[in-house]
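Customer ticket, subject: "Can you confirm the structure for RDD family protein?"

Message body: Hello, I'm evaluating your service for our small team and ran a test protein. I'd like someone to confirm that this is what the system normally returns, since I don't have a reference to compare against.
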Amino acid sequence: MSELVTGEAVALELRPARLPSRALAVLLDLVAAVAVYVAVTIALVASTASLDEAAQTALSIATFVLVLVGGPIAVETLSHGRSLGKMACGLRVVRDDGGPIRFRHALVRGLIAVVEILMTFGVVACIASFVSARGRRLGDVFAGTLVVRERIPVARTGFVPPPPPWLAGRFSGLDLSAVPDGLWLAVRQYLTRVQQLDPQVGWSMADRLASDLAERTGAPVPQGVPPAAYLAAVVHERQAREARRAFGSGSSSSAAPAAPVADGAPGAGAAPVVPPGAVSEPAPGAVESSGAAPPAESHEVPMGDRPGTGFVPPA
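Agent reply: Thanks for trying us out. I re-ran your input and got the following:
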Protein backbone atom coordinates (compact mmCIF):
# COMPACT_ATOMS: atom_id res chain seq x y z
CA MET A 1 0.00 0.00 0.00
CA SER A 2 1.41 3.38 -1.03
CA GLU A 3 0.32 6.59 0.66
CA LEU A 4 0.00 9.60 -1.62
CA VAL A 5 -0.78 13.13 -0.44
CA THR A 6 -2.98 15.25 -2.71
CA GLY A 7 -2.79 19.01 -3.15
CA GLU A 8 -5.53 19.38 -0.54
CA ALA A 9 -3.37 17.47 2.01
CA VAL A 10 -5.56 14.36 1.74
CA ALA A 11 -3.72 11.08 2.17
CA LEU A 12 -4.61 8.41 -0.39
CA GLU A 13 -3.77 4.75 0.03
CA LEU A 14 -3.13 3.18 -3.38
CA ARG A 15 -1.77 -0.18 -4.42
CA PRO A 16 1.10 0.23 -6.91
CA ALA A 17 1.10 -2.25 -9.76
CA ARG A 18 3.88 -4.81 -9.69
CA LEU A 19 6.11 -5.94 -12.52
CA PRO A 20 4.18 -9.06 -13.67
CA SER A 21 0.88 -7.22 -14.14
CA ARG A 22 2.60 -4.25 -15.78
CA ALA A 23 4.54 -6.51 -18.13
CA LEU A 24 1.36 -8.30 -19.16
CA ALA A 25 -0.36 -4.97 -19.80
CA VAL A 26 2.55 -3.72 -21.92
CA LEU A 27 2.57 -6.97 -23.87
CA LEU A 28 -1.14 -6.65 -24.67
CA ASP A 29 -0.64 -3.04 -25.71
CA LEU A 30 2.26 -4.00 -28.00
CA VAL A 31 0.26 -6.80 -29.61
CA ALA A 32 -2.62 -4.41 -30.33
CA ALA A 33 -0.27 -1.69 -31.63
CA VAL A 34 1.65 -4.11 -33.88
CA ALA A 35 -1.61 -5.47 -35.28
CA VAL A 36 -2.76 -1.95 -36.13
CA TYR A 37 0.67 -1.10 -37.56
CA VAL A 38 0.67 -4.15 -39.83
CA ALA A 39 -2.84 -3.38 -41.07
CA VAL A 40 -1.99 0.26 -41.77
CA THR A 41 1.29 -0.71 -43.50
CA ILE A 42 -0.46 -3.17 -45.80
CA ALA A 43 -3.03 -0.52 -46.71
CA LEU A 44 -0.31 2.07 -47.41
CA VAL A 45 1.77 -0.32 -49.54
CA ALA A 46 -1.26 -1.14 -51.64
CA SER A 47 -2.24 2.51 -52.06
CA THR A 48 1.25 4.00 -52.62
CA ALA A 49 2.69 1.46 -55.06
CA SER A 50 3.16 4.15 -57.68
CA LEU A 51 5.37 6.35 -55.46
CA ASP A 52 9.15 6.21 -55.49
CA GLU A 53 11.23 4.42 -52.85
CA ALA A 54 12.07 7.57 -50.84
CA ALA A 55 8.39 8.49 -50.44
CA GLN A 56 7.51 4.97 -49.36
CA THR A 57 10.31 5.00 -46.76
CA ALA A 58 9.11 8.34 -45.38
CA LEU A 59 5.56 7.03 -45.11
CA SER A 60 6.78 3.90 -43.35
CA ILE A 61 8.68 5.93 -40.75
CA ALA A 62 5.71 8.24 -40.24
CA THR A 63 3.40 5.27 -39.83
CA PHE A 64 5.75 3.70 -37.28
CA VAL A 65 5.93 6.89 -35.22
CA LEU A 66 2.22 7.64 -35.39
CA VAL A 67 1.01 4.11 -34.61
CA LEU A 68 3.61 2.76 -32.17
CA VAL A 69 4.39 6.06 -30.40
CA GLY A 70 1.52 8.44 -31.00
CA GLY A 71 -1.15 5.77 -30.64
CA PRO A 72 -0.38 4.86 -26.99
CA ILE A 73 -0.01 8.55 -26.11
CA ALA A 74 -3.41 9.38 -27.59
CA VAL A 75 -5.08 6.37 -25.95
CA GLU A 76 -3.69 7.13 -22.47
CA THR A 77 -4.65 10.80 -22.80
CA LEU A 78 -8.23 10.15 -23.91
CA SER A 79 -8.82 7.28 -21.46
CA HIS A 80 -7.12 9.06 -18.51
CA GLY A 81 -4.41 6.44 -18.11
CA ARG A 82 -6.23 3.26 -19.16
CA SER A 83 -4.87 1.63 -22.27
CA LEU A 84 -6.20 -1.66 -23.63
CA GLY A 85 -3.68 -3.76 -21.72
CA LYS A 86 -4.09 -1.80 -18.49
CA MET A 87 -7.86 -2.06 -18.76
CA ALA A 88 -7.59 -5.84 -19.15
CA CYS A 89 -5.25 -6.12 -16.13
CA GLY A 90 -7.14 -3.67 -13.95
CA LEU A 91 -4.43 -0.98 -13.92
CA ARG A 92 -4.44 2.78 -14.35
CA VAL A 93 -1.79 5.50 -14.71
CA VAL A 94 -2.27 8.37 -12.24
CA ARG A 95 -0.25 11.37 -11.17
CA ASP A 96 1.87 11.37 -8.04
CA ASP A 97 -0.96 13.12 -6.19
CA GLY A 98 -3.52 10.52 -7.31
CA GLY A 99 -5.17 12.67 -10.00
CA PRO A 100 -5.78 11.72 -13.65
CA ILE A 101 -2.94 12.21 -16.11
CA ARG A 102 -2.98 14.76 -18.93
CA PHE A 103 -1.38 14.98 -22.35
CA ARG A 104 2.04 16.09 -21.06
CA HIS A 105 2.27 13.08 -18.74
CA ALA A 106 1.30 10.66 -21.50
CA LEU A 107 3.73 12.38 -23.91
CA VAL A 108 6.73 11.99 -21.59
CA ARG A 109 5.82 8.37 -20.83
CA GLY A 110 5.41 7.54 -24.52
CA LEU A 111 8.66 9.16 -25.65
CA ILE A 112 10.77 7.49 -22.96
CA ALA A 113 9.02 4.17 -23.63
CA VAL A 114 10.61 4.14 -27.11
CA VAL A 115 14.03 3.85 -25.47
CA GLU A 116 13.36 1.72 -22.41
CA ILE A 117 10.77 -0.64 -23.94
CA LEU A 118 10.99 -0.72 -27.74
CA MET A 119 14.75 -0.31 -28.28
CA THR A 120 15.95 -2.36 -25.30
CA PHE A 121 13.09 -4.91 -25.37
CA GLY A 122 11.95 -3.82 -21.89
CA VAL A 123 15.22 -4.58 -20.10
CA VAL A 124 15.69 -1.00 -18.86
CA ALA A 125 12.06 -0.79 -17.74
CA CYS A 126 12.35 -4.05 -15.78
CA ILE A 127 15.53 -2.93 -14.02
CA ALA A 128 13.99 0.44 -13.12
CA SER A 129 10.86 -1.26 -11.77
CA PHE A 130 12.93 -3.58 -9.59
CA VAL A 131 14.95 -0.70 -8.18
CA SER A 132 11.98 1.61 -7.54
CA ALA A 133 10.12 1.20 -4.27
CA ARG A 134 6.77 1.70 -6.02
CA GLY A 135 7.63 -0.21 -9.19
CA ARG A 136 8.00 2.85 -11.42
CA ARG A 137 9.93 2.82 -14.68
CA LEU A 138 11.92 5.77 -16.03
CA GLY A 139 8.93 7.14 -17.92
CA ASP A 140 6.94 7.31 -14.67
CA VAL A 141 9.80 8.98 -12.82
CA PHE A 142 10.25 11.75 -15.40
CA ALA A 143 6.52 12.21 -16.00
CA GLY A 144 5.61 12.20 -12.30
CA THR A 145 3.15 9.32 -12.64
CA LEU A 146 2.42 6.01 -10.99
CA VAL A 147 0.69 2.86 -12.22
CA VAL A 148 -1.80 1.61 -9.62
CA ARG A 149 -4.19 -1.27 -9.32
CA GLU A 150 -7.86 -0.45 -9.81
CA ARG A 151 -9.35 -3.87 -9.16
CA ILE A 152 -8.51 -4.98 -5.64
CA PRO A 153 -9.83 -8.28 -4.27
CA VAL A 154 -12.68 -7.58 -1.89
CA ALA A 155 -11.94 -8.89 1.56
CA ARG A 156 -14.67 -10.39 3.71
CA THR A 157 -15.53 -7.62 6.12
CA GLY A 158 -18.11 -7.70 8.85
CA PHE A 159 -17.67 -11.47 9.43
CA VAL A 160 -16.56 -12.54 12.87
CA PRO A 161 -14.85 -15.95 12.72
CA PRO A 162 -16.36 -18.57 15.03
CA PRO A 163 -14.39 -19.66 18.08
CA PRO A 164 -12.69 -23.06 18.25
CA PRO A 165 -15.09 -25.91 19.08
CA TRP A 166 -13.31 -26.69 22.34
CA LEU A 167 -14.19 -23.19 23.61
CA ALA A 168 -17.91 -23.41 22.84
CA GLY A 169 -19.94 -22.64 25.97
CA ARG A 170 -16.87 -22.22 28.19
CA PHE A 171 -17.66 -18.57 28.99
CA SER A 172 -21.40 -18.98 29.59
CA GLY A 173 -21.08 -17.75 33.18
CA LEU A 174 -18.96 -14.69 32.36
CA ASP A 175 -20.29 -11.31 33.48
CA LEU A 176 -20.31 -9.05 30.42
CA SER A 177 -22.37 -6.19 31.80
CA ALA A 178 -19.35 -3.97 32.59
CA VAL A 179 -17.81 -4.17 29.09
CA PRO A 180 -18.33 -0.83 27.28
CA ASP A 181 -19.58 -0.60 23.73
CA GLY A 182 -16.30 0.94 22.57
CA LEU A 183 -14.35 -2.14 23.62
CA TRP A 184 -16.86 -4.44 21.92
CA LEU A 185 -16.49 -2.41 18.73
CA ALA A 186 -12.68 -2.60 18.89
CA VAL A 187 -12.78 -6.38 19.42
CA ARG A 188 -15.21 -6.87 16.55
CA GLN A 189 -13.14 -4.73 14.18
CA TYR A 190 -10.03 -6.70 15.10
CA LEU A 191 -11.73 -10.05 14.48
CA THR A 192 -13.09 -8.96 11.10
CA ARG A 193 -9.65 -7.77 9.93
CA VAL A 194 -7.35 -10.25 11.62
CA GLN A 195 -6.56 -11.99 8.31
CA GLN A 196 -5.26 -8.71 6.84
CA LEU A 197 -2.83 -7.92 9.67
CA ASP A 198 0.77 -8.90 10.11
CA PRO A 199 0.96 -11.94 12.43
CA GLN A 200 3.12 -10.18 15.00
CA VAL A 201 1.01 -7.02 14.98
CA GLY A 202 -2.20 -9.07 15.16
CA TRP A 203 -0.93 -11.05 18.16
CA SER A 204 0.00 -7.90 20.10
CA MET A 205 -3.37 -6.31 19.37
CA ALA A 206 -5.21 -9.46 20.43
CA ASP A 207 -3.18 -9.65 23.65
CA ARG A 208 -3.97 -6.04 24.53
CA LEU A 209 -7.69 -6.41 23.76
CA ALA A 210 -7.89 -9.67 25.71
CA SER A 211 -6.29 -8.00 28.74
CA ASP A 212 -8.77 -5.11 28.59
CA LEU A 213 -11.69 -7.51 28.22
CA ALA A 214 -10.52 -9.68 31.12
CA GLU A 215 -10.14 -6.57 33.30
CA ARG A 216 -13.73 -5.53 32.55
CA THR A 217 -15.21 -8.96 33.14
CA GLY A 218 -13.22 -9.63 36.31
CA ALA A 219 -12.04 -13.06 35.10
CA PRO A 220 -8.54 -13.63 33.73
CA VAL A 221 -7.85 -15.20 30.37
CA PRO A 222 -7.62 -18.99 30.83
CA GLN A 223 -4.19 -20.51 30.59
CA GLY A 224 -3.37 -22.00 27.22
CA VAL A 225 -6.08 -20.08 25.34
CA PRO A 226 -4.74 -17.84 22.52
CA PRO A 227 -5.88 -14.22 22.80
CA ALA A 228 -7.62 -14.24 19.41
CA ALA A 229 -9.53 -17.43 20.27
CA TYR A 230 -10.51 -15.95 23.65
CA LEU A 231 -11.87 -12.80 21.97
CA ALA A 232 -13.82 -14.84 19.41
CA ALA A 233 -15.32 -17.06 22.12
CA VAL A 234 -16.40 -14.11 24.28
CA VAL A 235 -17.94 -12.28 21.30
CA HIS A 236 -19.75 -15.47 20.31
CA GLU A 237 -21.11 -15.79 23.86
CA ARG A 238 -22.35 -12.19 23.78
CA GLN A 239 -24.08 -12.76 20.44
CA ALA A 240 -25.70 -15.93 21.78
CA ARG A 241 -27.03 -14.05 24.81
CA GLU A 242 -28.42 -11.28 22.65
CA ALA A 243 -30.10 -13.84 20.40
CA ARG A 244 -31.69 -15.58 23.39
CA ARG A 245 -32.84 -12.24 24.76
CA ALA A 246 -34.33 -11.18 21.42
CA PHE A 247 -36.02 -14.42 20.40
CA GLY A 248 -36.74 -15.83 23.84
CA SER A 249 -38.96 -12.89 24.84
CA GLY A 250 -41.47 -13.63 22.09
CA SER A 251 -42.38 -17.04 23.48
CA SER A 252 -42.86 -15.77 27.04
CA SER A 253 -45.21 -13.00 25.92
CA SER A 254 -47.95 -15.44 24.84
CA ALA A 255 -51.26 -15.14 26.62
CA ALA A 256 -51.44 -17.10 29.84
CA PRO A 257 -54.50 -19.32 30.46
CA ALA A 258 -57.31 -17.78 32.47
CA ALA A 259 -57.55 -18.66 36.12
CA PRO A 260 -60.24 -21.22 36.94
CA VAL A 261 -63.44 -19.83 38.41
CA ALA A 262 -65.12 -21.61 41.25
CA ASP A 263 -68.54 -23.15 40.66
CA GLY A 264 -71.33 -20.71 41.43
CA ALA A 265 -69.00 -17.71 41.72
CA PRO A 266 -69.30 -15.27 38.77
CA GLY A 267 -66.11 -14.17 37.13
CA ALA A 268 -65.00 -10.57 36.90
CA GLY A 269 -67.20 -8.73 34.40
CA ALA A 270 -69.43 -11.77 33.76
CA ALA A 271 -73.19 -11.87 34.23
CA PRO A 272 -74.40 -13.68 37.37
CA VAL A 273 -75.61 -17.25 36.90
CA VAL A 274 -79.40 -17.51 37.41
CA PRO A 275 -80.51 -20.61 39.34
CA PRO A 276 -82.88 -22.97 37.51
CA GLY A 277 -85.96 -22.19 39.68
CA ALA A 278 -85.68 -18.43 39.39
CA VAL A 279 -87.31 -18.19 35.93
CA SER A 280 -91.14 -17.99 36.23
CA GLU A 281 -93.31 -20.03 33.84
CA PRO A 282 -96.86 -19.04 32.77
CA ALA A 283 -99.80 -20.96 34.24
CA PRO A 284 -101.44 -23.58 31.99
CA GLY A 285 -104.87 -21.94 32.22
CA ALA A 286 -103.67 -18.61 30.96
CA VAL A 287 -102.52 -20.12 27.70
CA GLU A 288 -105.78 -21.98 27.10
CA SER A 289 -107.98 -18.90 27.84
CA SER A 290 -106.21 -16.74 25.32
CA GLY A 291 -106.99 -19.12 22.48
CA ALA A 292 -103.56 -18.76 20.97
CA ALA A 293 -101.44 -21.70 20.03
CA PRO A 294 -98.90 -22.64 22.63
CA PRO A 295 -95.50 -21.25 21.82
CA ALA A 296 -92.88 -23.59 20.48
CA GLU A 297 -90.37 -24.81 22.96
CA SER A 298 -87.26 -22.64 22.75
CA HIS A 299 -83.81 -23.58 23.86
CA GLU A 300 -82.43 -20.01 23.70
CA VAL A 301 -81.20 -18.33 26.82
CA PRO A 302 -81.53 -14.55 27.21
CA MET A 303 -78.34 -12.57 26.73
CA GLY A 304 -78.38 -11.47 30.33
CA ASP A 305 -78.57 -15.06 31.55
CA ARG A 306 -75.63 -16.37 29.53
CA PRO A 307 -72.45 -17.08 31.45
CA GLY A 308 -69.42 -14.96 30.74
CA THR A 309 -67.66 -17.90 29.10
CA GLY A 310 -70.07 -17.92 26.15
CA PHE A 311 -71.26 -21.51 26.91
CA VAL A 312 -75.01 -21.99 26.56
CA PRO A 313 -76.38 -24.61 28.96
CA PRO A 314 -79.07 -26.97 27.65
CA ALA A 315 -82.69 -26.07 28.42
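A couple of notes from the result: Residues 1-12, 250-304 have pLDDT under 50 and may be disordered. The radius of gyration is 44 Å. Feel free to reply with more questions.
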